Amino acid sequence: MPNTIIIGSGSYIPNRIIGRDYFMDAEFYTDEGEKIEKPAEEIISKFVEITEIEERRYIEDDNSNSRIGYEASKIAIEDAKVNPEEIDYIIYASNFGEVSTAGLVNFMPTMAARVKNHLGIRNRKCITYDMIFGCPGWVEAMILADNLIKANVAKTILVVGSETLSRVTDPYDRNKMIFADGAGAVVVTATEEENVGIINHNTICDNGPELDYLVSGGSLNKEANQEKFYIRMLGRKIYEYALKNVPVAIKETIDDAGLSIEDIDKVLIHQANAKMDYAMIERLHRLYNVKNYDHSISPMTIQKFGNSSVATIPTLFDLIIKGKMEGHSFKDKGNIVMASVGAGMNINAIVYRFP
Prior knowledge:
By secondary structure, this protein is of the alpha+beta class.
């Protein structure tokens, strides 16, 4: 059975930097639709204290999700040194597809098909899939790619995670300051080398009461247009769910790979809230009875890039492997974990071993 290894990566980080001053004139409302009378500066400072998000990146008005996905994909393909015509599948993860500046969502044609078109791939046997799976979409796309390769259905696959969340956030919601834009991509291929690449993965879908933790909904300002839908989330519910379930899911993935936390060099975790991420990594170590650990095991980009959803992990991977994150690198033959949690609620994790 072949194994799945990453042979190239790329990312697109928008140039438009959005700091706290961008939100100083905002009016914020509670989940119950009541206007918050506190000064915007006080609300923003409290937000930064909890999330550590000082800046985030937005695309320009004349740019789009499929274009930044294409930019990341082009870099990944060049890095992999493969002929684009030999790509068997393109799997594109996003939550909202192609979003206009007016916030209109468009999935027809699929994002994967658009990227194939932008890349100029003429191969009719190159199959294009969209993965709509919440923030864990890119990790799940990697799991799908691994399954296709192990089943000998495909040899080379482009896996993209790209999002323009700045266009689907309620202007009256404090949570809008979490979300950002960006794209990341990798090229994976089959190898006969043993015990390398994706050596284990795990997915959990809790779709009972958790279904309502992250949804699309109208503006918190009841006097605003309620026909337009925005990201709506129950922050406390998500926090409690993630802390209870994500560390256990990651541990199960590591254990089933025949490893322990001491064998893991990095945990690339989806980043929506720095406080939550720190707590999840601490709880993961606690499950192994480890109290003291090197906090660099979990590199963070959220402070400068915000939450770019499906793009977070592939962007982080690309930055580290290209030597663009000071103090962080991957080891030859080393093991890393890639894990995410998001709308559904869905959780997934991969243990990846470098060749």
